[in-house]
Amino acid sequence: MKLHIQNNFTTELPADPSEINIPRQVERACFSYVTPKQPSNPSLIHASAEVANLLGLSQSDIQSDDFLNVFSGKTVYPNTKPFALPYAGHQFGNWAGQLGDGRAINLTEVTHDNKSYTLQLKGAGPTPYSRTADGFAVLRSSIREHLCAEAMHYLGVPTTRSLSLMLSGDEVLRDILYNGNPAYEKGAVVCRVAPSFIRFGSFELFYSRNDRVNLKLLTDFTIKHHFPTIKSEGITKYLDFFQAITRTTLDMIVHWQRVGFVHGVMNTDNMSIHGITIDYGPYGWLEDYDPNWTPNTTDRQNKRYRFGNQPEIALWNLYKLANALYLLINDAKPLEEILNAYSVDYQKEYLNMMRNKIGFKIIKEEDAILIENLTELLQLVETDMTIFFRNLGNIQKEDTTEAAFDTIKEAFYNEKDITETTLNNWHTWLNHYSDRISEEILTDDERKQQMNTVNPKYVLRNYMAQLSIDEADKGDYSLVNEFFELLKKPYDEQPDSQKWFAKRPDWARDKVGCSMLSCSS
Ligand code: AMP
Ligand code: MG
């Protein structure tokens, strides 16, 4: 197995002089060297051939002992020295001080085809940033990360990738619901891949310590290596940097809202500066279209990270990043201008996205009302988001209102919930919709094709992830494999997999793992 190693981060930025691997505060350093804990009996469950390819690895590499050893943390790849990053963050709206890679260890940077990647093991043992936790990860959360990261990529949502999913062969003690019932679970390690794992919280850390020197070093490094199109100098350079992050973050959120993804823990330490989805923890997929839904039981009271609040929270997090960068910029006004533009830009992009979801090419002012009415209607009774939008594409210009309603009604969880008023409201909306698509130049078939490129047929429904976990726990990985393949083509019909184009079964409504997940596991 041959990787093209590059060590920009550790070569150019200050290291923690101590290599003592115990939880501690690390000052004036951008990383700490730390060696993964050797797993007792690692085994490969699944690897993404496509991610391997990105790194220049072949199918036979994936099958090699080197692959197993390096990506389980058993051996360190030659000429590399693994390291963990410190960062800080706001968790659930509160300042949390130093956090950091508590159970993530960066192996190295790799280049292939003129692109560079950082490889990171998640669950490979404690680091100086593990605080009170053990540094390990369990099989269930690792399956959720591996499957979802790749599914998001194929949906066209910016994300970290996942190279491999391995069992460590060790057991890990977890209290799933934090209710005093700990139990042993299988330990696992995922290898994540991203341009870097630098987060909003990486900058907040130095800001909070008034450490302008290291803040500047990290920011200059990040711009030089990861934002090569920024050519400006001085304050403008930092403003361009912030502007770029604001833009990619906004785009990412629009994608989340398009596919019905709820991150669940949008703390500032879980916000990548690349505008890619990072840290798949208690995330979930909207089944019933409910903007107030969050899968995260830790957030059940305030629902800070509910589906409908994600755009606002991204902005809140950008404010925190702006605060940190202010230390380099010393002028609040241009930062505020960028932040103020976010809401306007978001509204515009959100509308464009929704227009695409409902198949409109011509832009009309009054579409905003039609879209708003639709999102209100979707909340009247339990309605499956994925099924609704996918089926909407089957409506034809000449359909009667009744026929149009028949086309979408599969999306209702319980048709009996539909009162006469609700039905009338739907008829009214469908009539407007029918008039509106009749003004479009696209034929029914063309419109459907176009809608099918933005309305996925298959997403990793919460109960699907849980089914694959239950089987994997018994040593059967067939569903992990099946879902991985299915979700590589989420927009294709895949008739053999029609059974996964289905509403959440009733047993999954309130089941742990399906609708209720807790933060770190
Ligand atoms: P999360 O909510 O998963 O983003 O985690 C918040 C912080 O806790 C991050 O700094 C993680 O690295 C750390 N953390 C989460 N789980 C563990 C664990 N099992 N061991 C050590 N640190 C952890
Ligand atoms: Mg995290």
Global Rg: 24 Å
Taking all residues together, what is the mean pLDDT? 97
The count of domains is 3
What separation lies between the terminal Cα atoms?
A: 31 Å
The helix count comes to 17
Described by strand count, sense and barrel closure, the largest sheet is: 7 strands, antiparallel
Which sequence of SSEs, written as H and E, runs from N to C? EHEEHHHEEEEEEHEEHHHEEHHHHHHHHH
Report on this model:
- With 521 residues, the protein is an alpha+beta fold.
- It is built from 17 helices and 13 strands.
- Strands 1, 3, 7, 8, 9, 10 and 11 form a 7-stranded antiparallel sheet that branches.
- Helix 16 packs antiparallel against helix 17.
- It starts with a strand and ends in a 35-residue tail after the last helix.
- The relative contact order is 0.11.
- The structure holds adenosine monophosphate and magnesium ion (MG).
- The site of adenosine monophosphate has 18 residues, from loops.
